[in-house]
Design brief:
Elements (H helix, E strand, L loop, with lengths): L9 H10 L7 H8 L5 H26 L6 H6 L3 H13 L4 E5 L5 H8 L3 E6 L2 H13 L6 E5 L12 E4 L4 E2 L2 E2 L10 H9 L3 E6 L13 E7 L2 E9 L6 E6 L3 E4 L14 E5 L1 H5 L3 H8 L2 E2 L7 E3 L8 E11 L2 H10 L2 E8 L6 H8 L7 E10 L2 E9 L13
Parallel strand pairs: 1-2, 1-4, 2-3, 4-7, 8-10, 16-17
Antiparallel strand pairs: 5-6, 7-9, 8-9, 10-11, 12-14, 12-15, 13-14, 15-18, 17-18
Length: about 400
């Protein structure tokens, strides 16, 4: 797709309605029928846009995705709507009324900002991407708040805006880019733009090393439904602060500078911290809340004797602690009539799917079990258990 304009004509919009929801297996028949009355290129563009809209439902929801316009990279790189709405809400709470959205992509963040009542200058240097952002603002009734500009973000004057938001491109011709200085534009440029603004937010990859976070920034890691989505560097808020935010909610855990938790013997419960908590290096804060410790000094599993509900970790009741042994595990699953096996790992080289095929080639019965492949006090270990049921807090007592 090199031009969205034909799809924005009455004929193009009618075709988009005609191909809405077309299944991949039906595309050839639909294309053949529509090409009798419409240009072949326009039909192909409409079907391609329909596929992109179907892919975008996971990020934007069916209602918005069905009206928006996408590019392949735009679907891949755009922010999930729930995360963008959270970030826009935080900017609103900070008193921001206008934002320069640099590297706006197809406009997902601009849409969230506008829906929060914030005026947006959305900038992208790619003409098709900028056209998609403009079309999306129009399609969603937000054109009065979103001004889309096709330009190089490094040449845009942002001095008239309360805040700057930068989402550098983190994908190249060879896939995902891990070096922040290889972003487009580089992280160093984005930090400079942020420091020049009253407030700013920079979206970066969640795997960014903590030592790469500028001292002037607050660092926030965000997960949605348990999946880590991004890290954000905030400027003009709380320099040096670290937080993990879990959506939906939001639930936010602030770092307090605690040292790493001590290693302790395995208790009755194992807690698996949310990925945002782990990325933010806030496992110690969760362990303190749970009165727990680590199973191993290098593993982000917290163990405790009591069941204490927390939004920041998932609790499992452990029934068995065994040295890693495939034959022993296979026999145990057969003995206990397990039909559903969940395999989790941390600190183990074993591939979960491969292990599942080996130890449970077919269901043995109606029961479900979770096995953790990890290290306990340095030793390769299997921990068996199940999600903990809410109830009276358990007291002392470890697994067999």
């Amino acid at each position: 797709m090199t031009d969205l304009a034909p799809l924005l004509t009455p004929e193009g919009l009618a075709l988009l309605d005609a191909v809405r929801g077309t299944a991949p297996s039906d595309e050839l028949a639909v294309a053949t029928r529509l090409r009798r009355d419409h240009p072949a290129e326009l039909v192909s563009a409409a079907l391609g846009q329909a596929r992109l809209r179907q892919r975008a439902v996971a990020k934007f929801g069916a209602k918005d995705a069905g009206r928006m316009f996408f590019t392949p990279n735009g679907v891949e790189q755009s922010t999930r709507a729930s995360v963008a709405a959270y970030r826009a809400g935080r900017l609103k709470e900070l008193g921001v009324t206008s934002v320069a959205d640099l590297c706006c992509g197809i406009g997902g963040d601009a849409i969230a900002l506008a829906r929060a009542g914030i005026r947006v200058l959305a900038v992208d240097r790619d003409p098709v991407t900028a056209a998609a952002a403009r079309a999306n603002a129009e399609a969603l009734g937000l054109a009065d708040l979103v001004d889309v500009r096709e330009a190089d973000v490094t040449e845009v004057d942002t001095s008239g805006y309360d805040a700057v938001f930068v989402d550098p491109a983190r994908r190249g011709g060879r896939g995902r880019i891990f070096d922040p200085e290889a972003y487009s534009p580089p992280l160093s440029w984005a930090v400079g733009a942020a420091l020049a603004a009253p407030r700013a937010a920079l979206k970066i990859a969640p795997g960014v090393p903590h030592e790469a976070v500028p001292p002037e920034a607050e660092a926030e890691w965000i997960s949605d439904g348990g999946d880590v989505k991004e890290a954000v560097l905030w400027f003009g808020t709380a320099p040096g602060a670290v937080r993990a935010t879990l959506l939906p909610g939001p639930r936010t855990l602030l770092g307090t500078g605690l040292p790493n938790p001590a290693v302790r013997t395995l208790g009755r419960y194992l807690y698996e911290p949310d990925g945002a908590v782990i990325r933010a290096h806030l496992v110690a804060e969760v362990a303190e809340e749970l009165d727990g410790g680590l199973v191993d000094e290098t593993i982000a599993y917290v163990t405790a004797d009591a069941l204490r509900p927390t939004p920041y970790a998932t609790a499992y009741e452990i029934t068995d602690q065994l040295p890693f042994n495939v034959k022993r595990l296979k026999a145990l699953l057969r003995e206990r009539e397990v039909g559903i096996l969940t395999v989790k790992k941390r600190g183990s080289a074993v591939e979960p799917e491969e292990l599942r095929r080996k130890v449970l080639p077919k269901p043995h019965g109606p029961h479900a079990t979770t096995v953790f492949l990890t290290r306990v006090a340095g030793a390769p270990t299997m921990l068996l258990g199940a999600p903990a049921s809410p109830g009276p807090a358990a007291t002392a007592g470890g697994p067999s």
